Amino acid sequence: NAGVTQTPKFRVLKTGQSMTLLCAQDMNHEYMYWYRQDPGMGLRLIHYSVGEGTTAKGEVPDGYNVSRLKKQNFLLGLESAAPSQTSVYFCASSMDRAGGELFFGEGSRLTVL
Amino acid sequence: GDSVTQMEGPVTLSEEAFLTINCTYTATGYPSLFWYVQYPGEGLQLLLKATKADDKGSNKGFEATYRKETTSFHLEKGSVQVSDSAVYFCALSGHAGGTSYGKLTFGQGTILTVHP
Fold first, then answer.
1. What is the 3 state secondary structure string of chain A?
2. What span, in angstroms and rounded, lies between the C-alpha atoms of A49 and B39?
3. Nearest CA in chain A to B4
4. N or C: which end of chain A has fewer CB atoms below 10 A?
């Protein structure tokens, strides 16, 4: 049972470089989310999607873009990475619009030098 | 907006000690409340939840009661084990003004270390 899979798991970038994080889920969930985790700040929502072809901004969307071209995939892009984007990124999915269980990937650790 | 505040950590306990991690929240309406746990090197996983006032969520010996009067959802366990060492997150899903689309607001996390 794969669940939610994130790639890559680790990445080091230089300031100004671009990259894409891929999230794939095999549970046929409608809702998908990207969070970032920083020490002492918990998890903060970057962007989310309520279905194929839809995206919406979360709490900290600046500097990121997302796409949901297929229901099972949710991509997070950094067009011009900055050191402030050094973080651990988590993708999650859910089937419950009213607020049920989120299923998380194992995380992607990104360092921007 | 919605917010969740957890007790400052880290928390260090000896095996078989009693655990309490405090969590209070601010939200409009009637949110659902959750505790998630993150083991080293892993993603978060749901530990327990409560969807209405006075509900008690429980799992793996952990319990938390949804207290609307004190806007709290404190996590407790009577006897912790070394294997409980992890980061614990309190979270809420707000319902004010319509659906939350499953979005969660998280507290800052509490690191728990249990020594033999």
1. CCCEEEECCEEEECCCCCEEEEEEECCCCCEEEEEEEECCCEEEEEEEECCCCCCEECCCCCCCEEECCCCCEEEEEECCCCHHHCEEEEEEEECCCCCCCCEECCCEEEEEC
2. 26
3. A42
4. N
Which residues on A lie below 8 Å from B105 (Cβ)? 45
pLDDT per residue of chain B (116 residues) written in tens, 0 to 9: 889 999 878 999 999 999 999 999 998 878 899 999 999 888 999 999 999 899 999 999 999 999 999 999 999 999 999 999 999 999 998 765 455 667 889 999 999 999 99
Q: Does B42 contact A100 at a Cβ distance shorter than 8 Å?
A: no
* Residues from chain A contacting residue B89 (CB–CB below 8 Å): 42-43
Beta-bridge partner residues of B37: B45, B88
**Are B101 and A105 within 8 A, CB to CB?**
no
Give the count of Cβ contacts less than 8 A between chain A and B: 74
Tokens describing residue B98: 């319509």
Could you tell me if A101 lies within 8 Å of chain B, comparing CB atoms? yes
Residue A23: list chain B partners with CB under 8 A: none
Answer yes or no: do A33 and B100 touch at CB < 8 A: no
pLDDT tens digits along A21-69: 999 999 999 999 999 999 888 899 999 999 999 999 999 999 999 999 9
